[in-house]
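Hi there. Long-time user, first ticket. I'm pasting a complex I've been working with (about 1001 residues overall). I'd like to know whether the download I got is complete or cut off, because the file seemed smaller than I expected. Thanks.
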Amino acid sequence: MARYIGKRMFYMLITLILIATFTFFLMKILPGSPIASADRLSPEQRAIVEASYGLDRPLPVQYFDYMFGLVQGDLGVSINQFKGAPVTDIILNRIGPSAQIGFQGMLFGTILGILFGMVAAVKQNSWIDYASTTVAIIGISIPSFVFASLLQYWLAVEWQLFPVAFWKEGFMSSVLPSLALAMFPLATAARFIRSEMIEVLGSDYITLAKAKGASGSEIAFKHAFRNALIPLITVLGPMAVSILTGSLVVEQIFAIPGIGEQFVTSIMVQDFSIIMGTTIFFSVFLILVILIVDVLYGVIDPRIRLSGGKS
Amino acid sequence: MEKILQIKDLELSFNTFAGEVKAIRGVNFDLYKGETLAIVGESGSGKSVTSKSIMRLLPESSAEFKNGEILFGGRDLTKLSDKEMQKIRGKEISMIFQDPMTSLNPTMPIGRQITEPLLKHQKISKPEARKVAIDLLRLVGMPKPELRMKQYPHQFSGGQRQRIVIAISLACNPQILIADEPTTALDVTIQAQILELMKDLQRKIDTSIIFITHDLGVVANVADRVAVMYGGKIVEIGTVDEIFYNPQHPYTWGLLSSMPSLDTEDAKLYTIPGTPPDLLEPPKGDAFALRSEYAMKIDMEMDPPFFEISDTHKAATWLLHPDAPKVEPPLSVIERMKKFPGSRYYEGSKN
Amino acid sequence: MSQNYEKLPQGSFDRIPKDTKQAERISKPSVSFWQDAWRRLKKNKGAIFSIILFGLIVIMALLGPVISPYEPNDQTITHANLPPKIPVIENLGIFNGVGELGGQEVDLYELKNVDQNYWFGTDGLGRDMFSRVWQGTQVSLFIAFAAALIDMVIGVVYGGISGYFGGRVDDIMQRIVEILSGIPNLVVVILFIMIMDPGILAIIIALTITGWTGMSRVVRGQVLKYKNQEFVLAARTLGASDNRIIWKHLMPNVLGVIIINTMFTIPGAIFFEAFLSFIGLGLQAPDASLGTLINDGYKLIQYQPHILAIPAFVLSLIMISFNLIGDGLRDALDPKMKD
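Hi, the file is complete. Here it is re-exported in full:
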């Protein structure tokens, strides 16, 4: 297992270096100056501003400088939007709201999804099954921004149950964005658990459990649930991606001061260092999630845990 | 002998998209205390369905009892509620399945899987159940049972897993043990060990066994009586000697002829032509007639009744009707019959 | 023996000759894999309904801009922000041209003196939403299909080569995929869009740049699974060439998962296109896709909800129908397949 994790970490590192390098040079070949107001400046002024950000140095120097900073957690400084503020600080300041709605959405969606999926599988072909299957199909089909707009329109504007936008009323402000983000995990978990449960319920060891005299609920909870739940870990990765993608638009829609909203704004105002920093931050987050998922899978499933890593 | 289980006129169908599959079409047999009854037949003959219907393990959404009863301890199992059935399963009647690789829960230590029926059916504490489970593991020949209680199924070999399944099935000293092809998925050497183990255990705890198999070699080894199933019906039933040395039904002849033996002189093995009947639309008359060399007009029109050959031996074939022409069974079967006192071809008294 | 036999008619015990044809005939007529899959698919009401629904959407996407009397990009400022109005249906109280103005429900068509009907209303610049929505659908579908097709071709070739030749080739190719798929799709797409000129082509390239890895993985897995199975070994023993083995033996078996995977790529691509447009990285005006229309509509959600609702509804319908078709195909082609 340790060897497996080590190997994975190694690939993770390579991937990250590649992403950082790739992003760095991509930003450099982008048309136009990284300084938004460049057009209005005289060449001399422009040179002074560029020098103040170290942009006058040769590219390799800039690159290695950036990479060394990266190792120490330094993502450079903002140029256009926050004039010289460290990108790391900008991101750290905005983690709070993003993490809160992301976590709430994920938790709520997954738990409800598991519940839906289980009930649907145990009561296969009942109205409850059809209802939960319908919810799941709608959940994976309707994009989070459409869903978020609908929530905002009905629950906030029309019925005024929740604040329309902004991050001013604590938990209440987080409800609608969390719900919007919860849809995909909910739908994914419900679909996944349903099909896993149905497969598990048809397996020989469930028949054996029945032959031992176990009751319906004992079979569902003691035998089937755990076996159906373990593989759910494998879709946590896609779920995390969806939360991240969703956060870009959902935070925009509800005007939440999170990383996603910052990222979109930075794209608009072309603040390259924030875009780069956020890109790397997102990549680290996703790669970590995928690594944790794989390790977790090994820890939870005795078949993998005890035979020492996947082949 | 005491009848422990009686199956009377059992008919069972599966409701599928394609229509009603008549999987069991009137099955009758009794199971006596302490005996081993083998049910043999090819895939689709209804042998597995019969055994699962006794335990009521078929999917309730599609399987439906059409007729008949399964009498056990004065009660008709087809009419019991789920709750009542749960009290019988694992306690009075238990079951072993074909594939030991998939019949244990992969994420539960085997100790818990063995103690589960004990805790469910007997009023004992967890430590006591653990002790019983260790004893059971020792009984089925598992070395160092204390250490292995905490292990997971994938840490055991196929043979060992089947021993664990047997330990589970015997946990509550059931009156009936149904073994559904328990050795089919195992290596031949392991097969022999498992069969020995089952015979040994049967002697110790005096349980009745219904042994489902398609392997006649295994039948000869373990069974007291044999029921031959074809097309959802029992076509012949008798003691193991009667079935092996005085078979009457052409299907039994076919089965026996297609069994390889050391003194088979021809290099070529006999095969039964054709395929089993489609139970969506079971054929009229004798289901085997379409594949039989001995078919008569009546076979196409009427179901043959059971003709008694002896008190213990019955076969459902029109060939036993007094008016039916006398036919010669296949040569290899005649060879067998020569060894059976009371058969037409008996030669034992010659010398 | 003491049974009572009923008197049986004469000749009952006549032997009948064994007819081997008769014996073999009992077996059911054989159906090919694809026939069987089609039968299973036909039973799936959701999938069949979705195929029809999707067919209608495609027809509308092609015909919509043509049958509408207005060009998608023609601006008639005096006709701006009109709610939908469809003759006949307007009598039911919906699509009747009534909208909110200053907190009151009024017939905006009357108010603005408009004689024509705009079936889906107009946007803030007085452009006809009906032709714009279907035009946008066309663009969205084109992007999705093009991206899915490219993903499929690259993925199948890459995965096929990697799986079939195995060994070192596979090793190197898989390391590349491993690293590529470690990069979050979202990030790559956004970065690529930023460096390229925004437009349909840029979006398609951005979507496919890492998109194919999923398909290649699935195809490789399937090829690995099948290439060592007995039927392939048998073909090889009989002297079949690599070419023949790939096309005659492997392809038919892998085709199922390729189709299913493509079916799930399409809604993914549609979603991503809409997503990019929504965060301002999509098509540039006046070009429209469902995503840009939704983005435009979102800005007016409080005043003119129809500008958001209609394209969002069409987008959702496409997504739902594709997911249902994909589900149906998966169940039909391989009931056991999970990934």
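A couple of notes from our side: Chain C touches chain B at residues 1-3, 5, 8, 11-16, 18, 20, 22-24, 26-28, 43 (CB under 8 Å). The two ends of chain C are 63 Å apart (CA to CA).
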